[in-house]
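#onboarding

Welcome to the new folks! Below is a worked example of what a typical request in this channel looks like: someone posts a single protein sequence, and someone else replies with the predicted structure as tokens. Don't worry about understanding the tokens yet, we'll cover that in week two.

Example request:
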Amino acid sequence: MFSKLPKQGISLGLGDRVGLATPGHIKVAKRHEFFPVFAQQSIRELNFTGRTFHDVKKDVENAVIKENYEGKSGFDGDHLKTDEEIKMAIDSGITMLTLDCSEYMGVVSKIKEKIYKGFYGKTFKVKDLDLEYSQEELEKILSIYSGVIERIIYIWNNFPKVKNKDVSFEVSIDETNIPTDEKTHFLLSKYLYDEGITIDTLAPRFPGEFQKGIDYIGNIKEFKNSLMKHHKIASYFGYRLSIHSGSDKFSIYPYVSQITQGNYHLKTSGTSYLQALKIIAQKAPDFFKEIWKTCLDKRTEMDKYYHLSCDPFSVPKDLKPIEYLNNPDARQTLHVSYMFVLNPKYDFRNRFFEILTKYENEYHIEVAEHIKRHVKELKIPERGK
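Example response:
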């Protein structure tokens, strides 16, 4: 049932940190015109939850059988960094590889001069974009991205399933504080294209903030202008844009749909975990308060793994448990609380699953309703209409 992502159209990375959310995702996928990636996990998430790619695969397969889902779906090894991680994910049967290049940013590679010669003093035209590279611009771009380009080439040449297009190949350059401009995007893609490397999706770093589980923070006009330029470049080279940390970004969804003309990949993975916490808040408020207290205690540790803009200590202390999920600072903090709630090393896990299993049907409904809101704001049509 797992297959590569389509070359065109809409695909959504749904993912499931909990292992119980997929039936809710299926309810939406059955009714709407998008390609679902039910299985999507990063190594970081696997390490914190004590799962493996095989566990992720098995949970989705069981849900597909239970819900009589007959369509296709993807299996994304998300944010893979090392050769060992990539090999493990490929051996587990992934159909999409998301290469995280963050650790190669700022690493100046031996191919820097070759890239420089191919772009210096030249002007390239992509639709109505005229892209010309000065010496200063090239030095700046290559000081950050030449190592990234070399890493992508290495993965292409050393993993046959990538080079033979047995898996969809996504390049992620969004894990940085520096927004990706159009000249950087074009240079990277042009050099790869000239080397015979074809990617399927690329995740640039857009302006503004894409924080976990909350709406977009930033200038929407600036985001629209950036998205238009990136979409033109992606279309020119024949791949789709990928939008990471894409859940709950409702204010920009209409523009994503309009500007890309329904041709993008968007990752929403962690938001189904927040719906699980919603069930906990409703059914076991004292347990929820215990989770929140630990969020405050673990705030510094969270910063080691996630870039968070939230201030959980500013959250009013008189909120009801369910109200925490509507507070941006609390919601973002809770989004990454899985790192101890689902972690076998802590004592939350058994109680969490005992409650969620008891109210599993309600959880599936909450997940489905939440993803439906995403689909509605993205203007994804119903099947057959």
